Request: fold
Amino acid sequence: MKRRIGLRIGIIAFVVLIAGATILYNSLKERVPADAVPPGAGGDSGASSQAGAQKAQDFAMTDRDGKTVQLSELLAGGKPAVLNFWASWCPPCKAEMPDFDKQYQAVGGDVQFIMVNITDGQRETVESASAFIAEQGFSFPVYFDTLQQGSAAYLGGYIPATFFIDRDGNIASSREGQLTEQMLLEGIALITG
Reply:
């Protein structure tokens, strides 16, 4: 009898804890501006073309062929870019990807899409991420953060995370969490306008 009462109290305490955590999360989420840049992003202290703008911090990643590519190389052409960090095990990441692919097909000639997989070699591998992309039929370019340099530079602990980078290589806006199609369109308009 005492064991059942203890179990019920434990379950009730757990439910209260989860409810409190959810309320706290939603309360704090509203206080973080949508364009907040996580610590470490834009660490270049060089001059920028916008007042207060932060340069996109360079990092190495690999492409589908295993070739090492620097973010700075991708941005060198002067095109604005959408930089997104994702993983195939992340439900919000998977939910926003069709919108990214749709916009890549619509404006991919004018805006670079740099879709960076968080490839830790355990929870996510190049093979598992590539299989997911192929299975879904996504056409945007995919890169792999196998050295965890992009994660270290840009992520504040949450994925998906998206950064809108202007033609000058400055971070114009960023957002942690799943984007709606409207949010994605607004971010693209910000860097192409």
User: Anything to note?
Assistant: The chain is about 40% helix and 20% strand. Residues 2-29 form the longest helix (28 residues).
